[in-house]
Amino acid sequence: MSEAELIVEEARLEELEDAWDTLAVANAEPASGPAWMLGWWRHVAPSGSQLRVVAVHDHDELIGIFPLCTEPAEPHRYRLLAHNFGCCVTPIAMPGRAWETAELTGRILATAEPRPGAIELVPMPAVSPWVTALRERWPGRMRPIVYRTEFYTVPTISMHGRSFDAWVQGCRPHFRANMRRYWRRFGEASGNARFSTAETMAADAETFVKLHAARGAGRGASRYLTVAESLPAFLEGLARDLLAAGRFRLLILEIDGEPICAEFCIAGGGETLDVSFGWDERFKHLSPRTLSGYRMIEEAFSRGEDRFNLGRGLDDHKGSLADGADVSISEVLLPCGPLLGSALARAAPRVARERVKQALSEEETSSVRNLLRRVGLSPG
Predict the structure, then answer these.
(1) Mean pLDDT throughout 79-106?
(2) I need a labelling partner for 149 at 20 to 30 A (CA). Which of 40, 135, 174, 193 fits?
(3) Do 132 and 144 meet the contact criterion of CB atoms below 8 Å apart?
(4) How far is CA 125 from CA 72, 121, 299, 316, 329, in A?
(5) Is-contact 32 90, C-beta < 8 A?
(6) For the chain, what are the domain ranges?
(7) Judging by beta carbons within 10 Å of its beta carbon (0-12, 13-18, 19+), is residue 240 exposed, middle or buried?
(8) For 2-151+327-374, CATH number?
(9) What confidence tens digit (pLDDT) does each residue in 247-266 have?
(10) CATH code for the part of the protein at 161-305
(11) Partners of 334 in the β-ladder
(12) pLDDT for 315-367, tens place per residue?
C-alpha cells in the first residue's frame, strides 16, 4: 500500500534527490527535478518560505512527488517550487500513479498547517492530469473550486527520428540563407562558440548575468534580474548537478575572446529546455541570439534527444525555428472551508484581469502593460 509523507525540511528532500531526478527524467520534465527546484529553493525563494512537499512511496520506492511551498507574505497560498522562475513546472509520478499520488497528496494537504486557502499549480502543461486528479480525489464531500489565471503557447521542435541536417533542410529557404550569412560574418569576425566546462563555469555564470542584464535594460524587469545576486550561485549549482551528464549547457559566443552572447539549457528524458539568454547589442549585426539558438539545437540533435522546447512565448525568432507547440496553463484550486471567502475575494481581480487579456489582441495587451508601467502600476 502506498504511503505519503509531508516534507518540511530540505535535508529530507536531499535524501530523495536521486529518486526524484529519476522521476523527472522518466517524465521528460527537467525543470521539475531536484536540480532546478531545489536550486530555486536554496538561492531564489523568499526568505521565510516553508517547504510543503508531499512525497508518495510504494514501500521504499518513490512513485510521486508534489513539490509545494508557502511564502511568508501569504502563508495560506501553496505554490509549486520554482513557480515564478520562467519554466513550466509540475508534480511528477511514475506512469499510471498520478491519480494515486494526487489522492494521497489531497489527504495530506487537507490537514496541513498552515491550512491551504489556495493551491496554485502554475505554470503547468495543459495536458497534465494534476488539477483534475487533485480536485476529484480531494477528501470530503465538497470539491475545491478551480479557476484558470493564464494560458499560453510554448513552441517546440520535434527531433525524434530526424537528423539535424534534415531539420535544417525543412526550414524555410530564407532562414537557411540567413544562417549561412550570419555564420560567415561570425567567422570573419574571429568568432568562437564554446560550451562551459566545470573549470569555466564560475566566470561564465557571471558573464551570463552581465549579458542578460544588458539585454534586459529598458525592456522591463526580468524575473532573473530580480535575483541577479543569487543567479550565479544558482547556475553553478545546476552545473554541479547536471553538467557531467550533459544535461546543463551554457553556451558562450565570443569575438576575439570577448563574450557577446550567453544562453543556457537544461535537459532530461529526451527533452531539452531552452531557458534564457543575454547578448550584447553592439554585435546585433552578427545576430548572436539566432546563432546561439541554432547551435543549441544542433547540440541537442547530436545528443539524440527527442524534442527541443523553445520556452514560453512565440516571437519571430522562435517562430522561424518551431514545428510544433505545447500549451501551458496556470490554474488554482480553492479548497472549501473557512478560508474560501477570503480566497475568492483575492482571486476575483486576477480572474477579471485574465478575462480582459483574453479579449485583447497581443498588441493591445502590450500597450496596456506599457501604460501601467508608465504610471507606476504593476501590469500583473
Answers:
(1) 95
(2) 40
(3) no
(4) 27, 10, 25, 23, 6
(5) yes
(6) 2-151+327-374, 161-305
(7) middle
(8) 3.40.630.30
(9) 999 999 999 999 999 999 99
(10) 3.40.630.30
(11) 145
(12) 777 878 899 999 999 999 999 998 888 888 888 766 655 544 544 455 655 65
